[in-house]
């Protein structure tokens, strides 16, 4: 279906070719009917070349031998046919037929001698018909190959992103399974043993309270483990593996719908620390504002990490947690005083040293930052600055349209992110699509470069060198023939009536040349019984299609007539 602009463009192009055809036929002296017919034919063939390229090429090549008005259309028809004819054999057949038919018709018309027609007509038709088609076909194939390379590159990028996404899924599933099998089991044992100790009658009230705090901590840890495992396993569950929620529920978890930790959960952390006998103060400054989910969770982690470090490294020291709602960010600050006694060299504390590093990475991803360092009174200070919105202006982890992204961010090295709900480990990654034929040919050019060089040389010889040589030979031939059949006006004036035939012929060329062929057409009648010598003039005629001619007629051994006139070339 053509667009409106294409229709307008083709209409204008058809009108241009119609006007050119009409002007050409008018200069040739054609009648009104002939001029109108050729103009309409050119105007109709111009848009048809897009639908019937081979047919229009053949019609134009055949018609141009009789109607000069169709000659400008040959170049456009050949260019269009080179692009649109499918298959090398069909294109070669169409161009060969068009070239041979147009050359054969030109020779059959007999306006020029055979050798001259071949020397001039063959290279001309080659340049007008074959060369545009070859250039157009090369350009079209190059564009097709480029498009194929782009599509294949995009396919490789998609497959690469799929492979990377599935590798992430498998790794996350492995981590989730390890966490479930190891941490879940240990936390379950802690919870069970703490519950048994809590009902032991030999414990004092304070000991029972401490054991209760321990059990609540283990239960809270199992809640958080369930959430982390659920996030890691999200999108990776299949019938062979149970979900994280079901696994942890089997461990004794009764609260499968516990909300995710956030600013609201900081008060629970404070209460748990107070129950353990630590003096903790919670302060709030400013008007509370909503946070993005990731920032809300990061605020909880900052407070949790600060309390954990204080319990580890400064047991018994007072702790102050402050939530300051600034105009553009929430500041979570945890400050503990100096340790009250000598630490036990950390023998009873297990610390991997990764808490602050992971916390800094978490806040950096949402556009915030974390500061940790000694306080002025000898204690320790941990502060996190968390923006209310993500750097992109929306909730972190979500696209501008609100769609949840999966496992990747804007800094990913892949062109596309793996969508949520992508295939699991057992699904196919690549659909087995092979390389396109054009791409295979392009990738094996090194093996065929010698053949390509030979082919390019042969093509250059056929379509560049040979036409140039043919034109040169034709020019030399025409120059030699012109010396045999052409004189200038001064030579014509030097010849006088009554001179002997032998003297006149000695001064003039013999006229036996292919260029003198057809000069008697349209000439005045010759004197009765006379033999005439017709020669061409070296000067131009009164118009581009008129040829000046000099004729000398002899009878009885002397010159009886000389005439100067013009004939149509």
Quick rundown:
The chain is built from 15 helices and 9 strands. Helix 3 runs antiparallel to helix 4 (about 70-85) and helix 6 (about 115-200) runs antiparallel to helix 13.
Give a written overview of the molecule.
It is an enzyme of class 2 (transferase). Keywords: ATP-binding, Kinase, Membrane, Nucleotide-binding, Phosphoprotein, Transferase, Transmembrane, Transmembrane helix, Two-component regulatory system. One of its GO terms (molecular function) is ATP binding. It is a single chain. The protein is an alpha+beta fold and 569 residues long. Among the domains are: 4-155, no CATH class; 275-342 and 354-395, Heat Shock Protein 90; 485-568, Beta-lactamase Inhibitory Protein, Chain:B, domain 1 (2-Layer Sandwich). Helix content is 54%, strand content 11%. It is built from 15 helices and nine strands. The strands form two sheets. It has a five-stranded mixed beta sheet with strand order 1-2-3-5-4. Strands 6-7-8-9 form a four-stranded mixed beta sheet. α1 packs antiparallel against α2 (32-48), α3 packs parallel to α5 and α4 packs parallel to α6 (114-198).
Main features:
Beta-lactamase Inhibitory Protein, Chain:B, domain 1, Heat Shock Protein 90, 5-stranded mixed beta sheet, 15 helices, alpha+beta, 569 residues, 4-stranded mixed beta sheet, 54% helix, single chain
- Derived from helix and strand composition plus strand pairing, the structural class reads alpha+beta
* Estimated helix fraction: 40-55%
Distance between the termini: 47 Å
Biggest sheet descriptor? 5 strands, mixed
**Number of helical segments?**
15
Measured on Cα atoms, how large is the radius of gyration? 48 Å
Catalytic activity: ATP + protein L-histidine = ADP + protein N-phospho-L-histidine
Transmembrane segments: 51-79, 91-108, 114-135, 451-479
Organism: Streptomyces natalensis ATCC 27448
GO molecular function: ATP binding; phosphorelay sensor kinase activity; protein dimerization activity
């Amino acid at each position: 279906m053509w667009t409106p602009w294409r229709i307008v463009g083709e209409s204008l192009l058809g009108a241009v070719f119609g006007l050119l055809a009409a002007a050409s036929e008018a200069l040739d002296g054609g009648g009104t009917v002939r001029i109108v017919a050729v103009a309409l034919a050119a105007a109709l063939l111009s848009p048809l070349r897009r639908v019937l390229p081979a047919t229009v090429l053949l019609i134009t090549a055949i018609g141009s031998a009789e109607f000069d008005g169709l000659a400008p259309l040959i170049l456009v028809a050949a260019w269009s046919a080179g692009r649109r004819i499918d298959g090398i054999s069909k294109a070669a057949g169409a161009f060969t037929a068009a070239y041979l038919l147009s050359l054969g018709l030109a020779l059959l018309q007999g306006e020029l001698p055979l050798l001259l027609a071949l020397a001039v007509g063959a290279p001309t038709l080659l340049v007008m018909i074959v060369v545009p088609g070859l250039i157009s076909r090369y350009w079209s194939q190059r564009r097709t190959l480029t498009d194929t390379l782009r599509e294949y590159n995009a396919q490789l990028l998609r497959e690469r992103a799929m492979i990377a996404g599935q590798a992430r899924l498998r790794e996350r599933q492995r981590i989730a399974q390890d966490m479930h099998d190891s941490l879940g089991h240990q936390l379950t044992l802690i919870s069970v043993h703490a519950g048994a100790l809590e009902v032991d009658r030999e414990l004092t009230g304070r000991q029972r309270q401490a054991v209760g705090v321990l059990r609540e901590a283990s239960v809270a840890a199992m809640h958080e483990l369930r959430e982390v495992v659920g996030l890691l396993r999200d999108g990776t569950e299949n019938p062979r593996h149970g979900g994280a929620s079901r696994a942890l529920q089997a461990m004794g978890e009764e609260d499968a719908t516990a909300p995710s930790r956030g600013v609201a959960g900081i008060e629970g952390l404070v209460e748990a620390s107070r129950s353990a006998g630590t003096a903790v103060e919670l302060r709030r400054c400013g008007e509370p504002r909503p946070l993005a989910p990731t920032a809300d969770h990061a605020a909880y982690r900052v407070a949790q990490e600060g309390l954990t470090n204080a319990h580890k490294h400064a047991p018994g020291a007072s702790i102050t947690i402050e939530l300051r709602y600034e105009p553009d960010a929430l500041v979570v600050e945890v400050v503990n005083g100096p340790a009250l006694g000598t630490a036990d060299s950390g023998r009873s504390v297990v610390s991997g040293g990764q808490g602050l590093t992971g916390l800094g990475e978490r806040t950096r991803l949402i556009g915030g930052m974390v500061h940790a360092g000694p306080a002025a009174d000898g204690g320790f200070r941990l502060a996190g600055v968390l923006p209310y919105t993500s750097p992109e202006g929306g909730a972190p982890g979500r696209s501008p349209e609100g769609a949840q992204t999966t496992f990747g961010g804007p800094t990913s090295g892949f062109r596309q992110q793996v969508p949520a709900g992508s295939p699991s480990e057992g699904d196919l990654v690549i659909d087995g699509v092979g390389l396109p034929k054009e791409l295979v040919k392009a990738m094996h050019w090194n093996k065929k470069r010698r053949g390509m060089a030979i082919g390019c040389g042969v093509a250059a010889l056929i379509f560049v060198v040979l036409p140039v040589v043919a034109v040169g030979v034709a020019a030399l031939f025409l120059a030699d023939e012109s010396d045999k059949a052409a004189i200038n006006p001064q030579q014509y004036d030097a010849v006088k009536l009554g001179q002997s035939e032998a003297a006149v012929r000695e001064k003039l060329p013999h006229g036996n040349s292919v260029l003198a062929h057809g000069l008697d057409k349209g000439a005045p009648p010759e004197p009765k019984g006379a033999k005439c010598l017709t020669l061409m003039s070296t000067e131009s005629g009164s118009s581009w299609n008129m040829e000046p001619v000099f004729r000398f007629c002899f009878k009885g051994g002397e010159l009886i007539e000389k005439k100067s006139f013009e004939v149509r070339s």
